[in-house]
Amino acid sequence: MKKILLTLAILCCFTVLTKAQFEGSKQIFESPKLKETIKTQKTVAILPFEVKISYRKQPKNFSAEGNKSQEESMARSIQASMYTFLLRKASDYTVTFQDVDKTNILLKKAGVLGKLDETTKDELAKILGVDAVIGGRFETEQTKSEAGAIASAVLFGGFGGKSGTGTMFLTINNGADGELMWRFFKTMDDSIVSSTDDMVERMMRKISRNFPYKS
């Protein structure tokens, strides 16, 4: 029995260490004007994310249209998950975050939803009536089939297998002039057991100490 428990303990430690190795280093940029600027900000909007899904080896029956639809769905999902996370911890922040449904409706009415890359950040802030905008991009390359990832999950005691890698960029731009105030970058694993909520939760926990609006 002791041998079994020891084996399980070693397996758990190996799994944690392996997962930590897969997590890439983070990079953070802060504008020299950041601290002074955020003192004047009260409302911040979270923009729909840009999402790019690619494959190291294109799967059978790949559909470009289906892939694009999946990217758009994930873009909305990341936006909603981030809003939920921030709303849940609203008392920890010095600003309020605009409801993402309102954000998307205002962007759609202005004819820029889906064309955010053609609009400056200060223009977007004006459309939304906010003091700053949070934007971002998530890129993922699927490197392993779902079956292979499940096999890894079984091998590692059901903790989840690595099916790909994801790169997350998160930015905050000042609404008055569109200037970049803060930027976060990190590479993460994309596990078959991780939902978009899980991914955003992991990311936000890692940046919480450096998040500019934390009180």
From TrEMBL:
<feature type="signal peptide">
    <location>
        <begin position="1"/>
        <end position="20"/>
    </location>
</feature>
<keyword id="KW-0732">Signal</keyword>
<protein>
    <recommendedName>
        <fullName>DUF4410 domain-containing protein</fullName>
    </recommendedName>
</protein>
